[in-house]
Records
---
Amino acid sequence: MLYKETFILLIVLCAILIFWFRDAKKVSINLQTDNGKGYNYFRFNYLIIYFLVMAGDWLQGPYIYAIYKSYGFELNEIAILFVTGFLSSGIFGTIIGSAADKFGRKKFCLLFTLLYSSACFIILSSNFYILLIGRILGGISTSLLFSVFEAWMVSEHFSRGFSSSSLSNTFSKATFGNGLVAIFSGLFANWLVERHGISSPFLAAIGFFVTAAMVIILTWKENYGSDSKNTNTFQNLLQALNVIKNDSRVLAIGAVQSLYEASMYIFVFLWAPLLESQHDISNESNLPFGMIFASFMVAIMIGSLLYGHLSGPMNISFPDIASGTFIIASISLILPLFIENEFSLFIFFTIFEVTCGLYFPLIGTLRAKAISEDIRATVGNLFRVPLNLIVAFILISDISILEQCLLCSFLLFIAFIWSFWLPMESSSSKKSAKTVAKIAKIKKTLEKQRSD
C-alpha cells in the first residue's frame, strides 16, 4: 500500500505550510502587542515541561495493550482495565481539579508526576488487581494532565501581563510540538522494546516525569484560583456547576469538549481494527501501524498550523473554526460505513487527525477566554465527567465497531450544532488588545529614551 508515500507527502505538506504561513504570521504578531523576551522565555519554559510530560504519556501508548496481552489477559479483561482508567478519570477528576484551584496548580502538577510515575511502575506487575490500582492512578493522572498544566499556564500568562491575543499562539505551538513529541516517543519506544524488552518504555516514561518535576520545582511559582483560599472543595464544585448552568458560553464549550474528545478516544480503539477488517488477507505483510501512527501525528501538526493561520492572519471567528472542524470530523468518521477500501479509510482517518490539530488549540483558547480564573481547573475536569462516561459506555456496550464509528460521527454532528453557541471574540476584547499594544509601545519608547 501507499502508507510510506503518504507519510512523506504529509511531511512535505507540513513543511510547505510552515514556510507559507511564516510571513503572514510575522505580520499578524507585529499588529498585535509586543510581549517581549519575557513572554518568549515564559512560553519556552511552559512548552518544555508540557512536552516532557506528554513524552512520558506518549511512550506508553504503543505498548500498553501489548504488555497486558503479554501477561496472558483475555480481551475482556483488558477492556475492563481500560474502562477502569476512564471511570477513574471521570469520578476522581472533578475533586482533583477543584482541589488544584484551592491548594495550588503547581502542587498538583507535581502530584501528577508522582501519580503517573507510580502508575507506570505498577504496570510492570502482572497481577490483575494491582493493575486495576495502576489504571485508577492513571485515570486521575490523565485528568490532571489535561487540566492543571493549562490552568497554571493561563493564570501565569495573565498575571505577568501578557496579551490574550498571544494565547492562541501558545496553544497552537503546544499542539504542533506535541505531534513531534508523539512521533519521537513512538520511535523511541520501538527502539527501547527491541533492545530492552516490552517494559522499558514505561520505565523511560518515569524518567521524563521526574525530569519535568525537577524543572517545575526550579522554575515555576505557585498560583491559585483567585478566591479559592476562602472556599472549600465542595463550594468550588458548586460554584463551577452554577457557572456551567448559567453561562451558555461555558456550557457550549463543555458540550463540544465532551462530545469531540469522547469521539476521539473511541476512535483510538477503532482505527486499527477497521483498517485490519479491510486489509487484504492474501497480502502476507502486516499493516505498518508505526507508519500509520506517525502519519496521524503529522496530520495533527498540519491541523495546528491551519488553526494558527485561521485564528491569526485570517482572523476567522472561533465558532466558524469550530463548526468547520466538527462537520469535517463527523463526515470523516461516517464514511467507513460506506467505503470498503483500506487506503481510502486511512485517508479519511488522517483527515480526522487534522481536525484534532485544529481542535486542541481552539478549545484551550476558548477555555482561557470564557472560564474565570478561580474555578478554571474545576470546570475543566467537570467537562471530562460526561466525556469519560460516554467512552466507558460505548466501549463496554455490545455493538460492532462500525456501529461505534456511527455513534462517534453522530456525537461530532451534535458538537457541530453546539459550536454555534461558542463565544466569539468581542469588540471590547479587540479594543483592549489595541490598548495594551499602545501601552507596550509607549513603555518601549520611554525605555529607549532613558537608555539614550
---
Amino acid sequence: MDSGQGSFNRRQDADDLTDYVNNGWLSSNEFDGPTFLWNHMIREASREGSDQRNDVPVANLSDADTVINMPMQWYFDALASMVPTAERTDTGVEIPRIDMPTFSLDSQALSGVDAVVGNAVASTRWLDAVGNLAKAVEMTARFVGNVADRDNEGFDYLKDLIQTVRVYMDAVACNADPMTGEQALRMITQVACNEDFRLNAMQMVELLSCGLSFAQWDDTRMFAYDALNKGIATMSDFASSASTLSNSADDSNSRDIQTDSQPVAQAKTDLSLFEDDDSLSAEDLNNLAMLDPALLSEKEIAQAAQNQFDHAVQFLRHDLLRISGDIDEADRFLRDNHTSEPLADAYAARLIASERWQDLLNFVDLVERDTPNQTTVMFPEEVVPYEWETIREAALEALGRRDELIAMYQERLDDTYDPNTALNHLKLQAWQD
C-alpha cells in the first residue's frame, strides 16, 4: 500500500462506504436491510407509552366530535366577523382563502384535537380509542385544508398527529387480539382513503403504513396488505373519476377544497419518474401544482396526486416485503425500481453491506445507463463526493481494477474544475506504483 509518499489506503472509498452502510442509518438491527417508512423508534415509543396506558374508558365518538369541532368553529366564526368577504351558508361559513389571515396554532383552534387525542392514547380500550384517533385525524386534515396555512403550522401539526397515531397503532398491533387489530387498522385505512388525503400522497401513505406494525407476524400480515390495496384502489378510482370532471374555477377559490400548495406539493417527490399521457408532463404537473394548484384542471390535479402516490407507495411496498421477511423479493423490488433515487441507494447499500462488489459495479452501470444524471439522496456528500461515480470507484477499488481506476483518476485530473486535484494525484500514484 506504499505509494512512495507514505502509506495510502487504496481501498479508502470502499472502506468508507462499507463503514457508513454498516454503522449509519442504512443499517438495521431489526431486519436484513434498510426501511423507509418503518423506524425502530415507533416500537420503542409504543413500548415506553405502555406505562401510561390503562383500561379506562374514552370519550364516546359523538362527544369527541363535539370537543374537536367546537374550537374549530369558534375559529371560523372569529374569521367571519373580521373578513368582509365571508359569507354565511347553510353548512357554516365560506371565506375566500386569499382573504383569510394566516393560520397559527396559537389560535387554539386545534385544542379540541389535543384533548381527544390525549384521552385516547391513555387507554387500552383499543377500538374506542382508535375510533377517536381516526376522527381526530379526519377532522384535523379537513380543517387544515380549509384554512390559510401559509406557514405550514397546521400541516406540521397534522404530520405530528399521524406519527402519534402510528405509535398507538403499533401498541394495538403488539397487544390487541388479531380481530381487534384488523378492525382498528380498517378504521385508520378508511380515513387515509377519504377525500382529505387524496391530494396529499405522503400523508396518506404514512397513515397506510400503520399496517407495517402488523406485517411482522404471520397471523396479522394480511391486514397490512389489505390496507395497501385499499389505498391503491382508492387512488386509481380517484384518478379515473377526475378525468370525467369539468374544471371549475370557483372550486379553486373556495375554502371547501384544499387549494394551498402544500396538499399536492408537500410530498416533495420526483414526478419526472412517471410518464403522463396528457399534454403536460408529470414534471410540469408537479411544478404547476407547487406554484398554484388553481392553474390546473381537476383532472390534472388528480393526475399529479396519482403520480405522487405512485412514487410514495413504493416505499410502503418495499417495507412490507422487508418486514415480512421476503428478503429476495424486497431486494428485487429495489433493483427493479432503480430509477427512484432512494430505492437505488438502498439497493446499493445492500450490495455494499454484503460486499458484492461485482454486482455493485453492474448496478452502477444499470443506473447510469437508464438515468445518467441520477443523484444519491441517502449517502452524504463527504462519503460520495462524485455521487454514483464514487460508488463505482469503491467497487473498482475492492475488485482491484487497476487500469480502470487509473483512467478514472486521470480523467478527473484533466478536468480543471475538479476541486480534489491533490487527492486524485495521490490516488493515481497509489495505483500506478
